[in-house]
Amino acid sequence: MSRNLHLSFRACCAALLMYPLVGLAPAQDADVNTRARAAIERALRTYQTAVTYQDGFEMNFRIVARDKAGADVGQNEKLSSSTRFAYPNRLAIVADDSSVHADGQKLWQYNKTLNEYTESDAPDSIDIADLMASSGYNGPPHPAIHVLVNRNAGLDELFPMLNGYTKVQNEEFAGRAGVRVHGTFDGRKTIMQLESDAVPFNIWLDEKTGLMGELQVDLTNDLRQSLGITDKPKSADELAQIPPGMPTAVDEAKLTLRFNDAVVGRDIPATEFVYKPVADVKKVDEFTAMEPPGMPDPSKMVGEPAPTFSGNDFDGKPIALEQLRGKVVVLDFWATWCGPCLMAMPSIQNLHEKYGQKPVVILGINTDRAGMEKKIRATLKSKKVTFRQFLDTDSSLGMQYRVTGIPCTFVIDQKGVIRNVHQGYSPMLEKELVREIDKLLAGDKEEG
User: Fold this and answer.
1) pLDDT of 63-88, one tens digit each?
2) Quick check: 267 and 372 in contact, CB under 8 A?
3) What is the CATH number of the domain that holds 412?
4) According to the model, what pLDDT value does residue 13 have?
5) Side-chain half-sphere exposure of 397, counting CA atoms within 13 A
6) Residues 188 and 325 in one domain
7) CB count in 10 Å sphere of residue 153
8) Predicted TM-score of the model (pTM)
9) 13: annotated active-site residue
10) Is residue 12 annotated as a catalytic residue, yes or no?
């Protein structure tokens, strides 16, 4: 993370959770270490010897933050999926907008946004890292699968980032007896390359089965470090330089995973590992919007024609990008749960007011899921936003623009070509956008 805030919830969680955050490492307290070792070694035996596994998986990322006026600038997003696994190569992970199925013979990957699916030969064993990197799956990453498929991996190989354990306590969770293990890991050694070398985590393990019930990662201090927030009070001059909506206090930043109804050894019908496409889903060799290996980069679209779209805006009025030719268009991808997006809102609104009488169109692209219209309207009202909004509830437009994190802002010229892309929020965003828009307007006048 950096001080130029750029949050991609799924990408962030995928990178952090590709390797589970439990394991065995030295602890200063011998009793704590002994109890943690016993609980976690039992859990590892349960997962690594399981013939089948299934659960209902939930992930929640919650930030509680305030700006200099005390206004709430936090965020809260939830993702969920159902998981079925049978060793060595049968798998079914079904999320709201994508899925992966493997029945031991065939592997199917489905992406609802693209309305496409692929079919190929199933691998001899599931490599979850490769699968997630190459598939159209867009749901929450599941950390338990990493352990289920790596049966011969040692503790150090599975969990290289662990510092040690700090506390072990008996605790009832969801009506079940169990133990909660607390510890820290080195965030610099994760794929996310966090700034803290001691990120707190805790995990609850079922006393009867040894299975995980909940995993929590406390990212509060890391987020504070990335934002430059300290305990030292800021002067009046320093506060004056901080734009509205920018966090000056982070009370909590926590990632919580819950493994509901987790069970091993229960028979799973073979049909649950088979993907059954509905009539209008297209079978393809490769997903049409998939990027080459690696994270899609919207900045690579500079100089390319902007993907066209049409429909009704949030107020039911028709809008089409092609009909805006001859004008400078600014697209701002955002969501109500995204704190940095809300920080950028005043800057985008200022552009709308500044260029209201000029050939410039400011259009918000809201990426909240369907059913969030009431919250979207409340957010727009509280932020005093008056520029037009277009709903991208299935992320189809965001995928065309290769958006992997929000806020993400595109400047499109009068000929429909992308000229600038801004990923994340910074206090300089408005100034940079004004310079880019003015340059395009000046060029338009010179040519005309």
Assistant:
1) 898 888 888 877 787 888 999 999 99
2) no
3) 3.40.30.10
4) 53
5) 22
6) no
7) 14
8) 0.69
9) no
10) no
